[in-house]
Amino acid sequence: MKTLQLSPLQKARYEYQPKLPKALQSDLASISVEFGAATEAIADQARLKELFAKTYGKPIASFTSGSNDVSSKLLRVGVILSGGQAPGGHNVIAGIYDGLKKGNPESVLIGFKGGPSGLLEKDYVEITDSFMDEYRNTGGFDMIGSGRTKISTDQQFADSLRVAKELQLNAVVVIGGDDSNTNAALLAEYFIQEGTNIQVIGVPKTIDGDLKNEYIETSFGFDTAVKTYAELIGNIGRDANSAKKYWHFIKLMGRSASHIALECALQTRPNICLISEEIAEKKQTLEQIVNSIADTVVTRSSNGENFGLVLIPEGLIEFIPEMNELIAQLNDLLAKEAAEYEKLSSFEDQTAWVISKLSAASGAVFKELPADIQKQLLMDRDPHGNVQVSRIETEKLLIGMVEKRLVELQKAGSYSGKFSALNHFFGYEGRCAFPSNFDADYCYSLGYTAFLLIAQGLTGYLSSVRNLDKPAAEWQAGGIPLTMMMNMEQRHGSAKPVIRKALVELDGKPFQEFVKHRQIWATQTSYVFPGAIQYYGPAEVCDQPTITLGLERS
Amino acid sequence: MKTLQLSPLQKARYEYQPKLPKALQSDLASISVEFGAATEAIADQARLKELFAKTYGKPIASFTSGSNDVSSKLLRVGVILSGGQAPGGHNVIAGIYDGLKKGNPESVLIGFKGGPSGLLEKDYVEITDSFMDEYRNTGGFDMIGSGRTKISTDQQFADSLRVAKELQLNAVVVIGGDDSNTNAALLAEYFIQEGTNIQVIGVPKTIDGDLKNEYIETSFGFDTAVKTYAELIGNIGRDANSAKKYWHFIKLMGRSASHIALECALQTRPNICLISEEIAEKKQTLEQIVNSIADTVVTRSSNGENFGLVLIPEGLIEFIPEMNELIAQLNDLLAKEAAEYEKLSSFEDQTAWVISKLSAASGAVFKELPADIQKQLLMDRDPHGNVQVSRIETEKLLIGMVEKRLVELQKAGSYSGKFSALNHFFGYEGRCAFPSNFDADYCYSLGYTAFLLIAQGLTGYLSSVRNLDKPAAEWQAGGIPLTMMMNMEQRHGSAKPVIRKALVELDGKPFQEFVKHRQIWATQTSYVFPGAIQYYGPAEVCDQPTITLGLERS
């Protein structure tokens, strides 16, 4: 895509100079690195020490004012964007680029195109000043593209090394989520084991917010994405409160964790927000969830308010134990008995057959689902024959079942309101927004820090910028050994080293804050209207981090 | 709803002082009114002159620097929000309120609650400083609520007059779209015919942009709504161009006219934007539309781009002649032969029966529709038995049919790409956004002007602020006689006086600008990323009117 026309905001954003932590604002030669003690993995230490013989247990690195004699080295670095888009990716690249060029104008940054496959296939572009300038402070990953290829086979590891050597790279930076950074750790180890000095540095990216821990306060992109969704939810809330006739069921991206839904709830105060982790923990059934929503509809209706807002995390279905079981049984059944199933032509015959084959419990769950959801479960399957969970319209499923429940309550005389519901799904709207000032600053700092880690000759580290609830000048930059965040988990039947995914913690402050208020928010309309992300204007409007981050850091 | 918590943006927006046209910035006593010549309706002048014996043919009013001795009159005014929400409604109220209080601190503004029914039922609230201040520069109509009640029966007219008299009102301001302002004209005439001096002033509101003409350059709310949708479309375009794997089909609110889709296309440059008015004019069939989209998919795929953006106006279906005919036949058939239809239990029997009863042409159209759309047409009917056109998921209909067409092309060997499509519908997201600076200024000016018209003793006028492509100081405020914008149209079988709806003009500059570029945009990815509405920062980012307005005024 040749950019022919720029929006006024894009032009204005080109001029934005991201803020850096104080220690990183000085001359490169005036930054020193400090190391802490040796570190340990969060679990399975012995096994991880074996797997990461060369990179395990490194100390945490911090950058402070001081001096160094490595920052002017001539370096050749390759960068990869891995996985789904997140606002700020271009600024990570800008941070690396500016650091490299400031250190030594002869240093080179190349961008691998289309994700990790760009490394495997030696498909890349050398980044120049004018090319970089077209992408500063912009959203999207379109500068070099992204992809979901995993470097996993022996051949792929060998190809990565060959290409890195051919391009005479000193280092590869992998910008990605938990999986991609696990991959970065493996690649770092492999490069050393193969006798090279090629370094690998990770950068924590994901709008889902599930790559975080004691040392990574948030992944980049979460801030902008939730602010974009909160804008829309707030607008819809205001519409609901003005028109007073619709219940809006809003599904939000975030397959594994409910951080996005939770943060949006804290920002906008909807009547209901489902948190998958709580539902799994309490082993709630679909019926319980539906009845609980219906009860809130009834209560609000009796207060004269036949409208409302419900937030639903995208991954909900898989966290409801009985649905998870049903899907597993369906996947199994339709794979094993495909031939018999294929003979059935009418939907009625298919459902009858399926119910007869499922366990009694799963059959009963299936039977209660609205017909269009039954159809999605039977027909919308991926090439492996599995149900495509992400395609299930959970928001419509809940609307259908709540409607049914309300009819029952109406017949029983305990409800006489009107229920008219609309559904929405927000995800793609937020992944490529112009990064908020927070994400623009954070990403640029992460990229700049990644360069500093490379200059220091470190490998197997994740670029880390902390103290993020404070103004950018007070942020602390450094590096966290990737192995420190790992444990062993079962994947496809065998134990693999992985970075542990951060789900919503039910005893954590953000969820507890939500619990403290949700009963009030359910019945008393308390919507907050965040409005569109602002890049200019008062700092309290433009530069605030998320509520989740603020609470977790308090 | 008791507002318990304000977002930082909401607090900051309270401080925003909307800009006024120069003539309105001075003391109220230093504003004079000028009148043009007598006016005529756009058509059916004789009949309209009869119907509006007292209010027909008034001159256009303009406010300029000068003097007057009426602006300090003690006035009692009632205001009504009518119809769907549009950003800026609260600022219209603020403009009226501030004008009234500046003129005479004893003047009173009351807000009728829940739309026109508030007038009929004498359900109102007196607006105070503190109440007003909670809603300045905010979105939504939640300050006093809105509603869709039409004042149409003799009883309703009589009730309106009785309540207005009981409340000792000097004037009623109706903030609404074409229908509501037609109603305002009728009410103005009625009040005079009944021997009172109660005035009625209209204010042009609708995000759809279809209330405009030579004298009303744009309706308020359009600016903010399209900017909100363009933000989302741009974000999705950037995502599509980064991920390079999805076609996004985006339906946009706007039932009668395609102004919203057209403006969003001009702002974001998608690959395809359907314009209902063109489809109707060219009498295109659904098959032609589908084939044309598929052709673009094929061309882009042959360029290696298996992704794209398609914008679809909400009202599309009704503009496709054969679909319009099919829906009319279905409504008729299912009403007349309901008993026979009800006997059929399976979907297969229902479709077979329906096809046998429809005309051959409509039967063929129905047969080609995807099953879920056939189902929506048969099952999703309103209490009168009519198909609920607004509930038809046109975006999914098109995806389904394009998929089918691509399979044919694949079999014929003329397509070998991948087509994976996602659907979106944006409407509610934009109706209650914080008004853009343009809408905040425009609405406040409209409200202030409405007050001036009232002070001048005028009735049957629409508040008008023109020259809107220039900075606010150069705007021109005045009043346009409502009858001037009217003609006679068939409604429910009889000729009624109505304000003519402004559809997209195929020979107008905005559409011609689109036509000039659309072939390039179709095949060469040319997306523009407008980003979120900005309220602070450079004027070229914050204060620009829409492209449609700019072109129409050029």
From TrEMBL, chains A, B:
One of its GO terms (molecular function) is 6-phosphofructokinase activity. Residues 76-334 form the Phosphofructokinase domain. The active site is at 208 (proton acceptor). Its EC number is 2.7.1.90. Catalyzes the phosphorylation of D-fructose 6-phosphate, the first committing step of glycolysis. Uses inorganic phosphate (PPi) as phosphoryl donor instead of ATP like common ATP-dependent phosphofructokinases (ATP-PFKs), which renders the reaction reversible, and can thus function both in glycolysis and gluconeogenesis. Consistently, PPi-PFK can replace the enzymes of both the forward (ATP-PFK) and reverse (fructose-bisphosphatase (FBPase)) reactions. Homodimer. This is Pyrophosphate--fructose 6-phosphate 1-phosphotransferase. It comes from Spirochaeta africana (strain ATCC 700263 / DSM 8902 / Z-7692).
